[in-house]
């Protein structure tokens, strides 16, 4: 059975493995610090998610996983590794952040101070306004992030602002799906596509008029979500590398019609992230966060960029 035109299908195709569930997260957390936790620091990758579907997908690609409760962060952090067999030496930390601006931004800054990652990745789901172009389950990687930051021009028009990933991250995005296969039991069940060099529109503003204005302004935006912009702001302040990788789980205005796709889309996004960073040589020469504070010219955070 083909799922090529899946935008009206209620149930996603079957995965080729069993996802971890919320019960797998309920191991007794360890106090901070311990010798074991210190061996995981500094981490290479910080994965940031916003809900259990996204966390479970990322968790499923980490091994072995240990859970610690960090009092300063006031939340659990999950430590594991990316890699195949004995080559599991890409250190990964997973943390769930709230959607609120102050909470998410503060948590991100504290996490960067404690974990000192080389890159922060915002992984999970998004909606899309392009059902004729993008399918449910497809993965969108943001080379540009459009936000609600705006400037009113002298003539009364409004220009929205955005940001680009750095020149270091951009080539990785373009090769993100090289050698990748979606984790499907039947590879013919769905033609999952990865949209690289895309624009994702993000912001936590509850003003629906501003959301609509941003969508109208940036017609090239493939993904819509309300999670990454605030946490990105913290990453930008810290001069950290960052990227947004999202699976499409709904379409703008569809409401709860595509709930079954949230877990599936999160898994597709997490599998692409794993494909990008499973080889330790990728991040081998990247500095940890504490080493980037005085760096000059290594980052391309174009906050004032006008989106096309």
From TrEMBL:
> Its Gene Ontology biological processes?
L-methionine salvage from S-adenosylmethionine; nucleoside metabolic process
Report the residue ranges that make up the Nucleoside phosphorylase domain in this protein. Answer: 76-255
Which GO molecular function annotation, any one, does this entry have? adenosylhomocysteine nucleosidase activity
Transmembrane portions of the chain:
none
The UniProt entry, under Pfam families, shows: PNP_UDP_1
Q: Which InterPro entries match?
A: Nucleoside_phosphorylase_d (IPR000845), Nucleoside_phosphorylase_sf (IPR035994)
GO CC terms: cytosol
The name on file for this protein is: 5 -methylthioadenosine S-adenosylhomocysteine nucleosidase-like isoform X1
To which species is this protein native? Paramuricea clavata (Red gorgonian)
Lineage from the top down? Answer: Eukaryota, Metazoa, Cnidaria, Anthozoa, Octocorallia
């Amino acid at each position: 059975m083909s799922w090529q035109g899946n935008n009206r299908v209620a149930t996603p195709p079957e995965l080729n493995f069993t996802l971890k569930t919320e019960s797998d997260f309920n191991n007794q957390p360890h106090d901070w610090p311990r010798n074991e936790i210190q061996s995981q620091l500094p981490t290479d990758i910080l994965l940031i998610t916003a809900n259990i579907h996204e966390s479970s997908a990322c968790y499923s690609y980490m091994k072995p996983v240990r859970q610690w409760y960090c009092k300063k962060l006031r939340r659990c952090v999950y430590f594991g590794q990316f890699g195949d067999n004995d080559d599991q030496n890409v250190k990964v930390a997973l943390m769930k952040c709230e959607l609120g601006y102050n909470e998410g931004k503060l948590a991100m800054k504290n996490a960067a101070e404690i974990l000192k990652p080389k890159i922060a990745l915002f992984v999970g789901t998004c909606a899309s306004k392009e059902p004729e172009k993008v399918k449910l389950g497809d993965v969108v990687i943001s080379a540009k992030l459009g936000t609600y930051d705006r400037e009113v021009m002298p003539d009364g028009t409004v220009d929205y602002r955005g940001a680009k990933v750095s020149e270091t991250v951009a080539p990785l995005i373009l090769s993100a799906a090289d050698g990748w296969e979606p984790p499907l039991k039947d590879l013919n069940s769905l033609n999952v596509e990865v949209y690289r060099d895309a624009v994702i529109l993000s912001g936590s503003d509850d003003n629906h008029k501003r959301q609509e204005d941003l969508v109208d302004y940036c017609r090239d935006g493939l993904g819509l979500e309300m999670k990454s912009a605030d946490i990105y702001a913290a990453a930008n302040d810290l001069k950290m590398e960052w990227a947004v990788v999202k699976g499409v789980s709904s379409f703008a205005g569809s409401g709860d019609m595509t709930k079954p796709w949230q877990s599936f889309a999160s898994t597709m996004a997490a599998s692409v992230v794993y494909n990008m960073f499973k080889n330790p040589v990728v991040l081998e020469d990247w500095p940890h966060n504490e080493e980037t504070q005085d760096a000059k010219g290594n980052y391309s955070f174009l906050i004032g960029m006008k989106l096309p």
